[in-house]
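Q: What structure does this chain adopt?
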Amino acid sequence: MQTQRELAAEVRAHRDTAEQTTAYVARFLQDNFGRRVTALVAGIEDPKQVGKWCKADNAPRIDSELRLRTAYQVFKLIENGENSHVARAWMIGMNPQLEDDAPVQAIADDRFKDVMAAARSYLQGDL
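A:
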């Protein structure tokens, strides 16, 4: 069961994700993970495309945008509960709840619900 604090962190992350432009989300992820990891998350081969998204020169396909927004929302959830350093480390580190995949890799593999469940579990202190 989520505490009020955890629920508030989740609501803030959801609202923040819904309110940001795709360019902002891409730029945020690029700033925190670099272009190559952001491209991996989005499911694309050309990291230069991420730079174009950041400048709003063009927009990602819907499946790539879904992955970007999921990564952003999960990052913000962990950041709201902890801090940005923990969020980044959690996103790129191996996670036993994700069969030792990093959350960024699991998002790239479209395992969105698994990643969100792992993030909630982490914030609740279960893992």
